Amino acid sequence: MTTDLVRRLVLVRHSKASHDADSDLERPLTPKGVTLAEQLARQLRQRLDHTDLLLVSPAARARQTAQPLRQRLDPAEVQVHEEIYSHGVSGVLDLVAAGARSARSVVVVGHEPTVSALAHTLHDTDDDLGTQVSFGVPTATAVLIDVASRWEDLAPGGGHISEILTARRH
Question: Is residue 5's pLDDT more than 80?
Fold first, then answer.
């Protein structure tokens, strides 16, 4: 899938978060989570030549994970959507279909189990990468998916996981 028609969808699970907050939405990244988010942003910068759209959950941990992505990837547009937090796979698919329009590269910063479920749903083959995401993805992980269709036509089996990046824990 290396034609000009290929789009890239990157699903990012937020980095390591604290459990010390008044609500789940307010949970911030731990100091280690901040470091891992920066590492993941550096890794993604090496793989993405451009980013058109960055879609982010409103949860504090997702917004904090998105900060180094925004700095390193320099997306043309950034949007925060509650649907990423609360509407699961179909909510993220609807957002991408409606919001990406002419975008070639879309990065979504969200949560489990949505990240792994969506990656597994979109993956077009039964292989090691598909199996890996079916068990869930760790924090500070990005799943890179090549998509040959228009965003609005994206459906189960409509993408191919090309790589899974996880920030290294030292």
Answer: no
